[in-house]
Amino acid sequence: MVEGITSSGFAFKLEDEVLDDYELLEALVDIDGGNASKVVLALRSLLGEEQYEAAKIHLKKTVGKTKTTDMVKILMEIIEAAKGKNS
């Protein structure tokens, strides 16, 4: 399990099997290739619907709205936390 808190204060938990998802890998590769539309799929795959909605609510409470750049930052911080577990 990967647990952490992003720099904005969003706490998350990921089950290990979530990280072993080929479609998630495809979405991350597409994002890396410039396809920002895959950010939503990647976040939903990683967090599940409940935590995904909680992240959006967290940002609305913290910065007043759910900014795309803030959601991407959450995604990147979660990926970094997951990398740390796998190294």
The tally of structural domains comes to 1
| Main sheet attributes: strand count, strand direction, barrel closure | 2 strands, antiparallel
Sequence of strands across the biggest β-sheet:
1-2
Bin the helical content: 55-70%
Instruction: Classify the secondary structure makeup into a structural class.
Output: mainly alpha
Number of strands: 2
Oligomeric organization of the protein chains = single chain
Contiguous helical run count: 4
Structure commentary:
The chain is mostly helical. The protein has one domain (2-86). It is built from 4 helices and 2 strands, in the order E-E-H-H-H-H. The protein has helices at 16-19, 22-32, 38-63, 68-86, and strands at 2-5, 11-14. The longest helix has 26 residues, at 38-63.
